[in-house]
């Protein structure tokens, strides 16, 4: 990985418009006549139609993608899938609970490092993103987990928002899809004795632009009932979970009309959300890699990363683990999806009450071996 600058801080639609040229009477004394038809260039008309068709095709593609991110649509589609297809998917991505012993055996003699997405993984997907609260039970589970393993939350949210939900100072936080990284202010001092708070922001120069686009999107989308624009510091989220599906294409057009004026920003799709962020080579996979390096595991064979997430943005992290040949990715989903994850879990309760609680409650040989090596 390219070396990074690390700063150490303290804790604290397509419409065709045809303009008519003036039609003059042959004599100044006669009033203008009304033309019976309008003559325009056939070549120009065909070009306009071609552009309109391309725009319409791109828009339809976006709307289809927005529909695909809807759990209600996924449920509808899954009901049409055969049980054989579901079983085939589960064979490729079996339950992490069913495969727990195999996972622990694979981690033996290595240091487990936990990476967790937030929305849809630690917290259920809710209509109001400001109310995606973590349960007390989940908080206790994550807190217990962090006592045994370095644990990080990797999310599209800004760090301050997620921290207000989680309130655990012993975690690493990677917000804005990994573009804002901060280390724990307590706990796991043996990993970061000289770095009480790791701070890395690869998209720092984009802050003024992000704020500018945020204001434009708020203004542009205020006429769309249910739309909510969230400023995640280094990226923006336009939530359409509460928007009438008939308004999705109109909302997509509004968002695209703003983003197209900023060529260094990219527009992508998540679960019931449109994401706008800097066009840089950085994602959740890069964030995972950076955190492993910060913990001293850059070229180590003694590390076992486990990444749990539910969104397409988590696929970058799943893919990285595949490429490293270390650890596993676990997808949280009730429905079959194309994924780079090795295992699956159905929902946040299964992730917390099941897998994470089991991992946090087991003092594995791998943990004891690593503790002994570091003392």
TrEMBL record:
* UniProt KW Metal-binding keyword: no
Q: Name one Pfam family in it.
A: Trehalose_PPase
Output the InterPro entries linked to this UniProt entry. Answer: HAD-like_sf, HAD-SF_hydro_IIB, HAD_sf, OTSB-like, Trehalose_PPase
Q: In which pathway does it act?
A: Glycan biosynthesis; trehalose biosynthesis
Cofactor(s) essential for the protein: a divalent metal cation
Catalytic activity field: alpha,alpha-trehalose 6-phosphate + H2O = alpha,alpha-trehalose + phosphate
Origin, by domain of life?
A: Eukaryota
Which terms are listed as keywords in the entry? Hydrolase
Similarity remark: Belongs to the trehalose phosphatase family.
Q: What is this protein called?
A: Trehalose 6-phosphate phosphatase
**Origin species:** Brassica napus (Rape)
Taxonomic lineage from the root? Eukaryota, Viridiplantae, Streptophyta, Embryophyta, Tracheophyta
């Amino acid at each position: 990985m390219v070396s990074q600058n690390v700063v150490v801080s303290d804790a604290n639609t397509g419409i065709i418009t045809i303009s008519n040229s003036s039609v003059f009477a042959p004599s100044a004394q006669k009033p203008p006549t009304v033309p019976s038809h309008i003559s325009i260039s056939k070549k120009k008309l065909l070009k306009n139609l071609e552009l309109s068709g391309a725009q319409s095709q791109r828009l339809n593609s976006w709307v289809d993608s927005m529909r695909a991110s809807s759990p209600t649509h996924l449920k509808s589609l899954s009901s049409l899938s055969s049980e054989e297809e579901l079983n085939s998917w589960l064979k490729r991505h079996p339950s992490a609970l069913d495969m727990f012993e195999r996972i622990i055996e694979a981690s033996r003699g290595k240091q487990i490092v936990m990476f967790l997405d937030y929305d849809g993984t630690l917290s259920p997907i809710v209509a109001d993103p400001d109310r995606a609260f973590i349960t007390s039970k989940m908080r206790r589970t994550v807190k217990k987990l962090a006592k045994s393993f370095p644990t990080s939350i990797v999310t599209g949210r800004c760090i301050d928002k997620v921290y207000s939900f989680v309130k655990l100072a012993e975690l690493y936080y990677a917000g804005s899809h990994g573009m804002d990284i901060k280390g724990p202010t307590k706990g796991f001092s043996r990993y970061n004795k000289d770095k009480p708070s790791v701070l890395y922001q690869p998209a720092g120069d984009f802050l003024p632009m992000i704020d500018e686009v945020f204001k434009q999107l708020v203004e542009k989308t205020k006429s769309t009932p249910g739309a909510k624009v969230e400023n995640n510091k280094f990226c923006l989220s336009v939530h359409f979970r509460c928007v009438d599906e008939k308004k999705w294409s109109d909302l997509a057009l509004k968002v695209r009309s703003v983003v197209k004026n900023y060529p260094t920003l990219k527009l992508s799709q998540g679960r019931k959300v449109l994401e706008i962020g800097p066009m840089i080579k950085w994602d959740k996979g890069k964030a995972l890699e950076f955190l492993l390096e910060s913990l001293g595991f850059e070229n180590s064979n003694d590390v076992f990363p486990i990444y749990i997430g539910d969104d397409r943005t988590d696929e970058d992290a799943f893919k990285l683990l595949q490429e490293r040949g270390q650890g596993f990715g676990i997808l949280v989903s009730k429905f079959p999806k194309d994924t780079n994850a090795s295992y699956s879990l159905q929902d946040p309760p299964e992730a917390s009450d099941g897998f994470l609680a089991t991992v946090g409650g087991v003092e594995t040989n791998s943990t004891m071996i690593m503790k002994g090596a570091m003392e």
